Amino acid sequence: MKTIILAASLAALLSACGEPKAQCGVYAIGPNQIKEFLKENKAEPAPGRTEKAKLPADFPAQLIDKEGYYRGMQVFCKIDEAKAALSSQGHQDWGVYELNTEWDKGVYQADDQAYHLKDITTIKQAIE
């Protein structure tokens, strides 16, 4: 019994978003315009954690953590999780995008208990 509990505890510690880190991609949601920008090589990178002093004065306060940083773009481990976020947030004309980073290196869990980008990251591709 102890072995089972220890194995379950270790699995929980080693996983993110309910999956082993090695099985996580990094996906975000955004406007469909990004697809066109990707085709033209003009897509802006996805923003990572940024100190408030480097943000525009009118940046939404609800996106700032208690340490005074923009948390970074929210990301998801699986495509299905990102699609569920699209649905639950009611976005029209938005899609899912794969980002050029690895879950265990480029993602952290913020004070809002969601996963966010640590650093600016380029967008690899749109997911159809």
TrEMBL record:
PROSITE patterns: PROKAR_LIPOPROTEIN (PS51257)
Signal sequence annotation: 1-22
Keywords annotated in UniProt: Signal
Keyword Signal: yes
InterPro entries the UniProt entry points to: DVU2496-like_C
Name of the featured protein: Lipoprotein
Organism: Chitinibacter fontanus
